[in-house]
Design goal:
The complex is a heterodimer of chains A (about 350) and B (about 220). Chain A is of the alpha+beta class and about 350 residues long. Helices cover about 50% and strands about 15% of the residues of chain A. In chain A, the strands form 3 sheets. Chain A has a 4-stranded antiparallel beta sheet with strand order 1-2-6-5, with no helix packed on it. Chain A has a 4-stranded antiparallel beta sheet with strand order 4-3-8-9, with no helix packed on it. In chain A, helix 2 runs antiparallel to helix 3 and helix 2 crosses helix 7. By secondary structure, chain B is mainly alpha-helical. Chain B has 8 helices and no strands. The radius of gyration of chain B is 18 Å and the shape is globular. The interface between A and B is medium-sized, with 30 and 29 residues.
């Protein structure tokens, strides 16, 4: 019964993989463009405009001013055209578009229409319009977020990898403190080594998944972001820990020096990944004044997959650390065996 | 406190006995600044000026930290362990490294101003120097421990760089942010949080150094 928790991590990750690949993305609006004759067309993702033909309604909103669009024309499941009866003088140039569908619910595209040539008068108020409220679309799906779109599935891999990395780095830190408390090499040194080795692996995986996500959402593989730089430098510091270990031959000295460096590496992790990004501009959600995923993205459907992913990665990482410890013990036993003379 | 002061005096005497080490450090810094001047052909933009300045300061800091003195020899260390308390040694070593790095940073700054004039620093020299010395304080505390670690591990400048570069990144990030603010003419209201953060980082580095140094000191 002792090791019964070990398969739980991989099983949870299998569940996460299945959910990540299988759960559809909810409907949303991608863009709004000017089409023939001054009409506008909105393009949706995962939408069912054709299924709601005849009941579709489109509204334009700027601040407290709301206007109903005219001649709504469903062109396909994902394309909808409409005309906007803007007056000669408008209160603002930038307008959001709301598409109300009985199938997809209420869809919003912020700053969808920009009237570059319009005459503006901020004191101008348009007549009030009643906007009906619709219930969100039924069915289990991940929420649609502009720009993030389908890549929101990466949330289940990228973020839990860092959570697991923090846990393993914390364990290595505690083990190093314990090692410093004794003059000779103790089991804590091997615990710290194994935990930080897994932490480096998780950090590299987190960097790769983050870089892939950045390519799709920010348009580049790497940006000058404090969170990214902090993650890279922290992973490098843990890499330095292993280089330091390899540089020292005497086991007791190696254990002590590595433990000292690990204390610095963990403090660096806290400063770079938990403190500094909160005080500087960052593209990352939840950092530098940006809203975090839990503010509006981490809805019920994401929670069903995200939390098991966090738990799954942590348990899998702990299992991997146990395997590394066991391998080290086997190697030590093997090294202690007397050499068999050649025949 | 008396032990720390005595050690500081001892380090100063040692510096005069091995003065070639300090002169080589200064020569490296000045040559690096002159190389920047030649490469930049006499004038650089503000951003490049700040970047070049910090690269030279950083390399000078690593140079200063990885100096090996006669009393770093294992047999001398073994003898010293008998009469020096490790915390006093750690405090004196960090303080002395701060003084040396502060002096080297000031020389680098002077050389930069001479070779690559910086009109954007007019009226902001004191703010710049405050940031420079706060950074030197933080770098010295971190690199004093890292260089001792590398020394005990049998590594030289290479290991100090591998182990130290990731650790000094927070300090470098904050100080470059501060210096870009100074060079950009930011008012004191916008500058002081970075300076306070630098001082806090330096304090944390010194506290950590004091905590872990006894473990490096022990045989």
């Amino acid at each position: 019964m002792k090791g019964v928790w070990k398969p739980v991590g991989p099983l949870l990750l299998l569940y996460v993989a299945a959910m990540t690949a299988g759960v559809p993305l909810g409907p949303g609006l991608l863009e709004c463009t000017v089409v023939d004759g001054g009409a506008y067309a909105v393009r949706g993702h995962g939408t069912h405009f054709a299924d709601a033909t005849g009941t579709m309604q489109v509204f334009l909103r700027s601040g407290s001013n709301v206007m109903r669009a005219e001649n709504v024309d469903v062109r396909s499941e994902s394309v909808l055209a409409f005309e906007a009866p803007f007056p000669d003088t408008v209160p603002a140039r930038s307008w959001d578009v709301f598409v109300l569908s009985e199938v997809d619910g209420s869809l919003l595209l912020e700053n969808a229409v920009f009237l570059s040539d319009a005459v503006t008068d901020s004191s101008r108020a348009l007549p009030a319009v009643d906007v009906p409220t619709l219930s969100p679309p039924a069915g289990f799906h991940f929420p649609f977020q502009p720009r993030v779109e389908e890549t929101i599935r990466n949330l289940m891999w990228h973020v839990p990898l860092w959570f697991a990395m923090f846990v393993l780095a914390g364990m290595a830190f505690v083990a190093s403190i314990r090692q410093l408390g004794v003059p000779q090499v103790s089991a804590s040194d091997e615990h710290a080594r194994a935990a930080s080795a897994i932490a480096v692996g998780l950090g590299v995986a987190g960097l790769i998944t983050g870089s892939i996500w950045a390519r799709f959402t920010w348009g580049t593989w790497w940006v000058d972001d404090p969170q990214l730089n902090g993650a890279l430098v922290t992973t490098a510091a843990y890499g330095g820990y292993h280089i330091l270990r390899e540089s020292v031959d005497r086991p007791a000295m190696r254990a002590r020096l590595a433990a000292v460096y690990n204390v610095f590496a963990f403090v660096l992790l806290v400063i770079l990944l938990m403190i500094m990004p909160r005080f500087s501009e960052s593209l990352h959600p939840g950092k530098g004044g940006n809203p975090g995923f839990n503010t509006y993205d981490l809805d019920a459907s994401l929670r069903w997959v995200f939390y098991p992913a966090v738990l799954g990665w942590i348990l899998t990482a702990l299992w991997m650390q146990q395997l590394l410890l066991r391998m080290a013990r086997v190697r030590a036993l093997d090294a202690a065996k007397p050499m068999t003379p050649l025949p | 406190m008396n032990a720390t002061l005595a050690l500081l005096r001892y380090f100063a005497h040692r510096e005069f006995r091995e003065s070639h080490q300090l002169w080589s450090l200064m020569l490296f810094a000045l040559t690096a600044v002159y190389a920047c001047y030649r490469i930049a052909a006499g004038s650089v933009e503000v951003g490049a000026w700040v970047a070049l300045h910090w690269v030279v300061v950083l390399f000078s800091a690593f140079n200063a930290a990885s100096r090996v003195h006669a009393d770093d020899a294992p047999e001398v260390r073994t003898w010293m362990r008998g009469w020096v308390r490790p915390r006093a040694w750690a405090a004196a070593r960090s303080l002395y490294a701060t003084l040396v790095l502060g002096a080297v940073s000031a020389v680098v700054f002077l050389a930069f101003v001479v070779f690559l004039p910086a009109p954007f620093l007019e009226g902001a020299v004191l703010a710049w120097l405050a940031g420079l010395w706060a950074t030197a304080w933080a770098l010295a505390a971190l690199l004093a421990v890292v260089s001792d670690l590398a020394l005990r591990a049998g590594g030289g400048f290479g290991l100090t760089a591998v182990l130290g570069l990731p650790l000094v990144v927070p300090v470098v990030l904050v100080s470059t942010h501060y210096c870009h603010g100074v060079a950009g003419g930011l008012a004191w209201n916008g500058l002081w949080p970075d300076l306070v953060f630098l001082v806090v980082l330096a304090g944390v580095a010194h506290a950590l150094a004091a905590l872990v140094f006894p473990y490096l000191w022990a045989e």
